[in-house]
Structures are given as C-alpha cells and as structure tokens.
Amino acid sequence: MTQQKPSAPLIPIPNGNRQKDVGRAGPLAWAGLALLSLPTVMLGLDLTLLHLTLPALAADLQPTSSQALWIMDAYGFLIAGFLITMGTLGDRIGRRKLLLIGAVAFAAASVLAAFSTSANMLIAARAALGVAGATLMPSTLALISNLFPSPRQRALGIGIWATMWGIGYALGPVVGGLLLEWFWWGAAFLIAVPVVILLLLLAPLLLPEYRAPDAGRLDLPSVLLSLPAMLPFVYGIKQIAKSGITLDAIAAILVGVLFAWIFIKRQRRLADPLLDLSLFSNRTFSVALIVLLFGLVAVGGTMLLVAQYLQLVAGHSPATAGLWMGLAALAMIIGGTGAPLMARVIRPGFVVAGSLALSVAGYLMLTQITPDAEGVTLAVAALALAYLGNGTIAALGTDLVVGSAPAEKAGSASAMTEMVQDLGISLGVALLGSIASAVYHRAMLKHLPRDLEAGMREAVVDSLWAASSLASELPDGLMAQAQVAFMAGLHGAAIFSAASVAVLTVLSAVALRHVGVVIPREGA
Q: Which of 520, 523, 524 is nearest to 156 (CA)?
C-alpha cells in the first residue's frame, strides 16, 4: 500500500505530537477538523447575523441608509480586502499562529460591536471584525490540507468545512432572530467569545503548525497596493447601491481598477509575489473561482431580500422568519456533504452544473411569490434550491481550487476561495439590493401623496424597512403600496439571479467537463 505524504513538512506542535505524514488521517485529524469547524461557523454567522436584526438595530442606532449598508457589508468587504494578505502571511509565519492571533482580535472586535452606541462605532467594529476574520478564514481551510494529505479525505474534510461555513451563513438570521426575542441586538456578537476561548485552549493540542518552506518575505508594497485596488471599488459599488450610477461612484471604481492593474504588474515582477498569478493558468482553478464568485452574488443578495420579505411583507417575527430560513438551510447541508460523495462517481463539473440548474429553478420560483401564506412556502422552497446550489459550489468549488494548487500555495489558494466567496456575498447584497431598491424607488415615487411631510417622504422612498418604522404614521394604503413595490424589486432581483446562474450552469458543464472523478481509492 503506497503511502501519500504532504509535499512540505509539518512543524511539530508543542506537546510533541505531530500529524502523521501517512495517507489516512487518524482520530486526531478529525478532532482537529471539528475544532476548525467552530470558527468557521462563527465566521459564516457574522456575514448574515444582522439580516433579521436590522430593523431593531435601525430603531436603536438610527443609521442613514448609507450607514445601514456599511453596517451590513463592512465585515464582508474588509475580509475580502485582506484575505490575500493574510493567507500569504499564514504561509510565512505559521497557519496555526495566525489563526490564534486572529481569534483573539475577533473576540475583542465582537465585544466592541455588541456594545456599540452609534452607527459609526458599529461600522468601525464590523470593519475590525472583517480584518480579524481575514486571518481566520484562510487559516482554517489551509490547515485542512495539513490534517488530511489524502485527496479523498481532504475532499470530504473540505466538504464538511464548506458545510459548516454554509450552516453559519444560513443560520445567521436564525440566531439573530432568536436572540432578539430575549436580548438586545448586540447579544448575537458575543457568541464569538466562548468559541475563541475553546479554540485557544484546544488548538495547541489538535492542530499542527505549518509554515511554507522558502516562502520568502511578505511584500509590504503589494499589501499596500491591494487595499486601494479593493476599497475604492467597494465604495463605488455601495454608492451605486445607494444613489444609482453617479460620477463619484464611477470614478471610485476606475481608481480601484487602476490600482488593481498596478498591483498585478508588480506581482508579475516579484520572485515571491503576494498573489501568485501563475495559479490562474490552471483552467480548473480559474473557472471554479468564477463559479464561486458569481454563484454567491446571487445567493447572498437573495438571502437578504427573502429575510426582509418574511418580516416586512409576510409579517413574521424575527425568530419565526429565522426558523423559516433555517429550514431552507437544510438544503445547504445536503449540497455541502453530498456533492463530494457524488463527485466520486460523477464528474465534478456535471455535479456543479446540475445543482446550479436547480438553483435557477429556485430563483424563477421567487418571481412568483405573493404576500400570503402560500407565498411564504414558495419563498422558502425557492431559497432551499438556491442554498442547495450554494452548498455544492462551496464544497466542490473550494476543493477544485485548493486541490489544483501546489501544497506550498494552499494558504494563498485558500485565501482566494475565501476572498471570492465573501466578495460574492457582499457584492450580492449591494448589486441585488441596488436592483431591488431601484425598482422600489421608481414604484414609490409614483404613489406618494403630494402633501406627505418631507422627512416621512424621504423614509418611505428610501426603503421598506425605513417605511415600516413609520407604519403607524403613514396615510392609509401607503404601507401596503410600499410592500407591493418591494415585491416588484424582489422579483426583478430574482430574474437577474436566474439569468446569471443559468450562465454559470453552462460554464460549469462545459469548462469543467475535463475534470474527471479524481478522488482516488485509498492506497491507489
């Protein structure tokens, strides 16, 4: 029986144990995976934790519509901005070390967020959470490659990891909604504290340390260039979501593109680049990243809109709406754990394409939902199909990306998968939110009474959640009209999602058809 060894040595952990460099991983590795699942769930939670608590948060902190967008998205965008840096840094200073440093920072930022007294303070805390989260996400995924040198076990481990992240992402509204029933909106952030304490206690016992040999120094100019390449682009997207296509939004996006071009030119000249562009020469790597990015654009924005529909249109409490969304999230578990098993007998590209085709059906179903009970059932079923595709692409797409990269680049490849997933979700919130908002604005401007007070007029035109906060003061019928306008916006966003995911379905079937059933039998 031929043993498979990691391509780079593992550094012993302090108690003298080490992950054995044999084909099959033992119980220690699976215990380590269980430990890594805790921060993974936590990171997924924080991406969507505020979806159902936004109305309560808005009533307490009184954010503007722009501040509300930053509260929602600062976390995901800052993660995306720093992931490449942190993934590469983990390869250099040690993946476990970076994981523990980031965990402490994440707990501290969570406490700050929980006790925020203003919208700007919460935005700053969410931004700090994003930077800290950027240290955790690539570390957890890259360490799986160290725990499981066998491709078959690694694929299953990554599938479980993706499922745990997806569960956290999907259950964020559930947890936020339930906690809001008993505590204040900030209590949800405090979940991170016991998770971090457990991680600090057990990581030295269960997780190996790994540093890439001859990784070189971290190129600080590249780090500095990566931020203006990302953040102006982010700002431009947010401005478009808030005010439509404006000169300053376009200028910001162009600045981001310019710095991205400078960043790429520098990477090509460096012997030890921050981002190894040679990874993109692998078609599997590139296509899998594209599928991850745009697949999550669709599901990220849809999730927020469905959460608002369940509360603000169907009239459910945050807890009930969260439970409905949790029911739909079961499909993500099926996709995340079932896809790696199906890929053992069916080509991965066809597994991905099939699940995305079901997601397209789900998005089309969303165009038919109504405000009544039947509409709620249809919305939950549609969201379940979207989640099924999300679980599949998160598990198989991630394994295709990490598996196609050299072992010493696993941290960088892991960072890329995390960056596109977080960027995809955040872009989805901004892009689909802007589509839904544009439809809502146009519809409401046609139905506003001319004598409506200016402040009330601005709130009603701004968003449905802003209108809901003034529901008792609005003229008869105006709130119902706002709900109809929101439904029209949701339908428009669903059509966009269906069309974009249909394109991804064809891309997966065609561009990934060459990827065979690559997970070998143990000992092969």
A: 520
